[in-house]
Amino acid sequence: MEGVGFVGGGLALGSRPSAAAARCGRTTVSMGAESVKNRNRRVGIVDKVREQLDKSTLAFALPLEGYTVKEVSELRNVIPENSCALAVKNTLFRIAIADSTWDVAGDLTKGSNLWIFTEEADMKGTVEAIKKFNKEKKKEETNGISGGVMENTLYDGKGVEALSKLPSKQDLYQKIAIAINSVPTKVGRSINSVPTKVGRAIKLAKAEEEES
């Protein structure tokens, strides 16, 4: 990745963090000789990834290579506030997801990745923001979504995009509430029409008797 360096599994960026970046936190670690301090910081990175996964409904990866430091910073600024973008070393990411419902994401830990963590309500907005950003930067071919995980199921890039277009639980609840609220009106109309229909049936029966 041009101009972007991993620092202990976290991505060191010099620009002012956005609200989304603030959610992710900022962890920097020297990759020199192994030390107790270094190990503790690596543990902190693993904990940070797990914390994001605990908050997220969907986690997906973008190839990191091809983005500049400035572009990564800009991308972090355009995704929804409650979403998070983290560049994490594959080894640390695999440790974070081990023995969890996210462990299938291990298949995506190849090359350098920018991981996106998002809650259900922000899935659509996050994916759309990234697609728009990549289109503007002409990165659609090189930095498109490589895959993601939701409810212990691994999806490819197209699958992640399809998931983002599904209605959220909140949307479904609203539709159900609207449907329920409309029931009394429909029932009332049906009930009110009964006397009329009954009256017509009685008249028709009398007419048939008179004819016979």
UniProtKB/TrEMBL annotation:
GO terms for cellular component: ribonucleoprotein complex; ribosome. Keywords: Ribonucleoprotein, Ribosomal protein. It comes from the Eukaryota. Gene3D superfamilies: 3.30.70.1730. The keyword Magnesium does not apply. It holds the Pfam family Ribosomal_L10. The keyword Ribonucleoprotein applies. InterPro entries: Ribosomal_uL10, Ribosomal_uL10-like_sf, Ribosomal_uL10_bac_type. Belongs to the universal ribosomal protein uL10 family. This is 50S ribosomal protein L10. It comes from Rhodosorus marinus.
